[in-house]
Amino acid sequence: MAEVEETLKRIQTHEGVIGTIVVNAEGIPIRTTLDNSTTVQYAGLLHQLTMKARSTVRDIDPQNDLTFLRIRSKKHEIMVAPDKEYMLIVIQNPSE
Amino acid sequence: MPVTHKTLVKSKQGSNAQSQQKPLAAKTAKVVSKKKDEDDGTEIGEGGDEWMHGKTLIKPPDQLDLTEAELKEEFTRILTANNPHAPQNIVRYSFKERSYKPISSVDQLAVHFFLEGNLLHRDSDEARRQKAKQGLPDEKATVVTETEDEKLETPLQAAGGEEAGDVEEGGGEDGAHSVDSKTGKKEQKLTNQFNFSERASQTLNNPLRERGCQTEPPPRASFSATANQWEIYDVYLEEMQKQEKNKEKAKAVPKKEDDKGKKKLTLVETQSDDLTKVAKVAKIIERMVNQNTFDDIAQDFRYFEDASDEFREQEGTLLPLWKFQYDQAKRLSVTALCWNQSYKDLFAVGLGSYDFTKQGRGMLVFYSLKNSTYPEYNYPTTSGILCLDIHPDRPYLVAVGFYDGCVAVYNLKEERPEPVYKSSSKSGKHTDPVWQVRWQKDDMDNHQNFFSVSSDGRVVSWTLVKSELVFTDIIKLSLVGAVSEGPEGVPPPTMACGTSFDFHKQINYLFLVGTEEGKIHKCSKAYSSQFLETYDAHNMAVDAVKWNQFHPKVFISCSSDWTVKIWDHTIRTPVFIFDLNAAVGDVAWSPYSSTVFAAVTADGKVHVFDLGINKYEAICQQPVVAKKKTKLTHIEFNPVYPIIIVGDDRGYVTSLKLSPNLRSKPKWGRKKLDIQFSGIHYYPPSFLFLRKTG
Known about the structure:
The structure holds two protein chains of two kinds.
Chain A: H1 2-13, E1 17-24, E2 29-32, H2 36-60, E3 69-72, E4 77-82, E5 86-92
Antiparallel strand pairs in A: 1-2, 1-5, 3-4, 4-5
Chain B: H1 5-20, H2 25-37, H3 43-52, H4 68-72, E1 91-94, E2 99-102, H5 125-153, H6 161-186, H7 229-251, H8 256-271, H9 273-276, H10 279-293, H11 295-303, E3 318-324, E4 333-339, E5 346-352, E6 362-368, E7 377-381, E8 385-390, E9 397-402, E10 407-411, E11 421-422, E12 434-439, E13 449-454, E14 458-465, E15 468-476, E16 498-503, E17 510-515, E18 519-524, E19 533-536, E20 542-547, E21 554-559, E22 563-568, E23 576-579, E24 584-589, E25 596-601, E26 605-610, E27 620-623, E28 632-637, E29 643-648, E30 653-658, E31 675-677, E32 680-682
Antiparallel strand pairs in B: 1-2, 3-30, 4-5, 5-6, 6-7, 8-9, 9-10, 10-11, 12-13, 13-14, 14-15, 16-17, 17-18, 18-19, 20-21, 21-22, 22-23, 24-25, 25-26, 26-27, 28-29, 29-30, 31-32
Helix pairs in contact in B: 5-6
């Protein structure tokens, strides 16, 4: 428990990280470091996208599964790591 | 009814007879001629003949002239009862004989007239039924009239008014009926076939009332799902797992207490499941974030090749990559480094202190190249670590030697921070710091075992038996040629202090031990008291001794006396000697070439040598750490990637990438090259052996 907290803390304080969100299986954010409206928006949109991506991967080979998803945009990079029950979203400004 | 022909004929004849009573001349002639043709059997005809004799014959002009004989000829005419219109040749298919057969008898009945009437025979069923229906009203009327007479006589004697009323009403009705029936007896009442007469009555209409009732609608939820291939696969997997569980349950008899205990556990888990399950995902994310931050380093690690090496003939460079440091390990120095053989990006760092006065705690830290900011595993220890070794086959077992003389084995798979096995003073721990540990192959009972060497002069083999460490002294290092006697007749110490050892890669029982006195002993596991050979290696303690990974005869040693020496174990003097101008902390052979090795010195430099290219000088001498005061303590080559890790006395581990020139594989032809160096013949080591593959 404490380890996980520590890990999340380290991620949050890592260089360039703008925010982190922990989302549960239904798409409801549990933990966030951003403001409410942004969180809700990110959680909803990325949840759908992750489900779609996962569906795609598994459709091709049901024994495969999505490990993580990275969306790099002009301004920053959104990283999503899905799990069976939870999903972690991190928005980082890459060092470039 | 049809009339038969005969009667017709008869009537015809009769009519003929009647017509004869009004004869005309021509008709009589016809009649007579006809009569002649007719049957003799008829009496009426004969009668006519007699009557006709009185008249003369008149022949019609078209009468046939026949001779007497012909006139008297008798023609028989037969009257039959056959229907002339009936077919005579009806043919029917006979299934028995499978052919068409003519029917022998044909129905000769001819119907001339047919009329449906409505008369019934009085004794037939239908007539009786009708009689019965008509008979009942007749009978009823007769009965009622009798009762009516009786009741009219006694109106006052009726008990209840209602009853009387009803009876009167009934009587009244019946009375009307009886009147009718009376009249109908003489003239029967004309009823239709169904005895139908309209009788209408109306009941009271109840007032209508509307009553409604409403229940709560059942709770509804809209459900939508997709049936993808993977969803189906998941469901099947779950089913299989359930079945397996059921099988297991069926085999093992469940205890109720255990179940309760399990239930409790599951409850607790669900309550605190909040973040523990995010652990795995968090780890992945951390690595991703790190990859982003250190993106350029990761790219360099993978793809950068120093192009300037083409211009530098024989020299190479080291490109600094990641730097690993752990906050809690700041004041400790790196005392041991080891790469994991199975997970090529994982390495172990042992932290402690070489300083005799500053002995304190230590740490065992594991880093992965994927995450340079935080260790994967870390175990704090009470005493400083001096050496460690990761088991080549079981990458989760780590043997550690401590400054206080203990050895321990950690199991990375387990969560707890203590070692799985630890030696204690009862179980034969060393009395002096343990300088080197090495895993060996599993012994005959499939127990893991490792060796350790320590300053107390013992080389000990430790075997992991169940939950204990069992030790066996392999050899005791005795001082060879100890001459000096201590003051006041104190017997000189007889034990040498081992500072490093290494086992031969191919020959299992052969190993080398370096001592504090600067000697290297070649030993065998079989002999516990004698050395096979002793080399006067250095003037100071031998810090490291390592066999060459390819050449079976060559080993290297380094010492704080600033030198690195290469030996052939059959020759008692070194083959090569390199002076590095500073105390050499560690030396390591490269895994890809038998001629390349690297050494680290106390002045913060890394020296890389390639004997195939340059036998006298290093092909790379590079300061690696920023501050010049930092001493480099250990160096290790990665078995797969072209990087080295270097540990220093500030607790930092730096990773460096070798430039292409440093990685050149030896290209030797089949020629033997004799090289003279200090009067010793030297055979290039790489010639005799192929590259180690895999």
